[in-house]
Specification:
The chain is about 5% helix and about 40% strand. With about 425 residues, the protein is mostly beta strands. It has one domain: YVTN repeat-like/Quinoprotein amine dehydrogenase (Methylamine Dehydrogenase, Chain H), CATH 2.130.10. The strands form nine sheets. Strands 1-29-30-31-32 form a five-stranded mixed beta sheet, with no helix packed on it. A four-stranded antiparallel beta sheet has the order 2-35-34-33, with no helix packed on it. It has a four-stranded antiparallel beta sheet with strand order 3-4-5-6, with no helix packed on it. It starts with a helix and ends with a strand. The N terminus is likely disordered.
Length: about 425
Amino acid sequence: MKRVIKSLLPFVAIAALALWWISTMDRTPPEQAKGPPEQVAKTTEMPPAHPAPPESASWPTYHGDHALTGYTSTPLPEKLTRLWSYQAKGPVYATPVVAENMIFSCTSNGWVFALDRSGAEVWSKQFMRESKTDGKQVPERFEAPLSCFNALVLLGSAHGTVYALDTKTGEARWTYAVGGPVLGTVNGEPVASESESPRLVVIGQEDGVLHCIDAGSGQALWKTEGIDRCDGSPSIGQGIAVFGSCAAALHVFSMVDGAMLRSVELGEDSQVAGGVALDGDSVFSGSHSGRFFHASTKTGALVWVNEDSNDEVFTTPAVDANRIVFGALGGTIYCLDRETGKTAWKFEAQGEPTSPVIAGDKVLFAADGALHLLDLESGEELWTFAVSDTISAPALAGGLVLLGGDDGTVSAFGAAQS
């Protein structure tokens, strides 16, 4: 028996060698592999539906940028979750602004405060003024939207003072006397580098005088002649400042010296009481008559006029490459084709809407205390949430939707946390 086994050993060895060689023919040689194991594993993972936006994303004015376009490419989910709420010491009617990775807001009774992205307070201060009747100290009243430029929190008061506060501490760097109530935002000119001191512009509500202020010193650089009452905010772009007034016109000024370049007459009963959006040579504005205008800042010509709204349009429109979205006083949100000015869709909000925001393929706005999210293409409502009796227009920065409420809250909404 031992002899038989011994005689078979060579054949067994040959068979084993043959089986090994055949098995290697079905294997991928190491040099042909698609990559290291960790790289191959990554390709099987599904990418996140909404990539996390950068922490440093900003929203320096109530309507986004210096041109007041109310647009961001940041995508939003179809439903939002309330992530946190901060309780302020008075009603918050103004839209929060975001810069330097902090959130800034104010109350109607003189409080200004800074929060981090988690809603924790960084600083808060109340500003007082001397009463004209008895000389006592009373809270300052802030009705204008605040803004943030050049490491300054900027806000105008109902009694005509512009405050420039240090973003890190809230300490006043300088003040500027407008000479009458300020209802519009203090806007800032874009600069090429952080070492430059931007020029700021603000409008006196009663006379429509446009003031230009050096952001570094708080000194006046120039101011224009009065036009008419102005309740809106100036937008800035390409070396010009544009705003509308009760003179039923849009006014284009040079940011260099304050020279009026042209006025665009809008016709009888088309006074402008809201902010205007500026995109390139195009300016977009609603009016008291309900007519909505697209005009050229270069020529002063009207490109088109939409007359579908029978209600006043005092909201600042949101603008992207293809659509214009605005709200009318009666509660209707309109979406227009940017090229033709024709209405693409309408949405009935059942309440007076705030200035809307275009966020990627969606529209955000508030109406009678509720936050609404619509599909930009169709106007279909995707989600709504009742926050308070009255809330501000929303801001969107770093993946957070931020708004103030008359109950004294600042709320942050976003994608549900896993």
